[in-house]
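Proteins fold reproducibly. Take a tokenised chain:

. . .
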Amino acid sequence: MLLRMTSNSAAATAGAEPSSRALFFTVFPSIMLPMFLAAVDQTIVATALPAIAGSLGDVERVSWVVVSYLVATTIAAPVYGRLSDVLGRRRMLFVALAVFLLASILCAAAPTVLLLTAARVLQGFGGGGLMTTSQALVGEAVPPRERGRYQGYLASIFVASSTFGPVAGGWLTQHWGWPSVFIVNIPLGIIAGLLALRLPQKPGTGGRLQFDVTGVVLFSAFITSLLLALERIQQFDLAALPLVAAMVIVAAIALVLLLRQERRAASPLLPLDLLKQSAIWRCDLMGAFIGAGLVGMVTFVPIWLQVVRGVGPGQVGLMLLPMTAGIAFGSLFTGRMMAKTQRTAIFPSIGLAFTVCTLVVLALAAPHLSNISIPILFAVYSMTLGTGMPVVQLTVQLVAGRANLGSAAASVQFSRSVGGAFGTAIVGAVLFAVLSATDRNTATLFAGMVERGPVVMASLDAAHQALVSAEIRDAFRSAFLTIAGFVSVALVLAWTIPVRRL
């Protein structure tokens, strides 16, 4: 009898394994490539900007090529989330892919920076849809007990593609010209479409679509003015403060009107009843603060390494590799452990505590650390920070339920984007404020470094370079502590998430 039961159990296990593998090879490639395309296009253009400016002119507006994509992806997230819930997620994935590919062709053919910016807005509408629907499709196609692993996979793809973007953009621009950074999307997008055909077709909630057009307009006004204000703050231009203040006022008014509209809309763009749930708003806030910590580090650490540590440009990439690999490893490990233990919040509740400790050590002991120990700290920082995002996505999906998967995924995408923008602006403001209080000339030099890189230091004599480096080193202590503050808030939120098991 015991032998028969053991045999049956083994047979059942053997039968379950191919099913799990079949699910992986059906779902993962089909959502991985769309996610990769959307994420890589956030950064692939960065290294092509000098070539674009040289070819099209209009240097003062070339940064719009990057900012416009970020704004559009943020606006697109709740739009696609709402539409995918009603019309079906696979269908909206194809719509987003078509928009993305059409916009890529228009970007490559753009004769002016203004038209290129317009095409990038359209591309961002497609890219935001790809990110949102990819996340929602995991919740739709994968059983809850398996979703942790897949969210870990997606988090690692997002981080790896964002880091891979500048490298690929530089290589493509050097060998094929700047239009190639957009043309390369065409064959990859076609492959992504063919792979997406393998996803199961599941209908949305159906019914008559009552789209919240007023909500979209107000949300667009809020996001556009807010992100543009944050982008201007990062330039540390005091003359732009009146414009920044005006944009902040516009964002505040748009937000108040948006909340009023969403409370009375029959089919709201932002389902406030969903966002009011404790587990969801805590997870969204947690995702925002993790995004602030990650993007703040990735933006300013290269400057710190070159100006303060004296690391050459070639070595900076190597020293940052542990940070990239660590986040991917942390996300994958957390996903697997969630699938194995059925526990969720325990991993960031422990992991983010180590992240905070690492940042405090970096802030207080950096002058005494060697260039060998710095990458080790980066690895610990990123691996422990990587415990957060898979838990955020999975918890939000579980609480939202199948009918609201799109809206849930969109809320996380939106929170992460705005958190990253806020984090970068706040860290930059802290650095600039500390430097201004110490030496206004150094603050001006640092503003130039943020825009053009550490090459600004080359015009200074050795003694002046040493003085500037020391002042910037002291300012970065405050920056690292600010990032530690972001992660500390995320840690507190992780401790208080009410959903702690699958």
Summary: The CA atoms of residues 345 and 500 lie 5 Å apart. DSSP finds 19 helices and no strands in the chain.
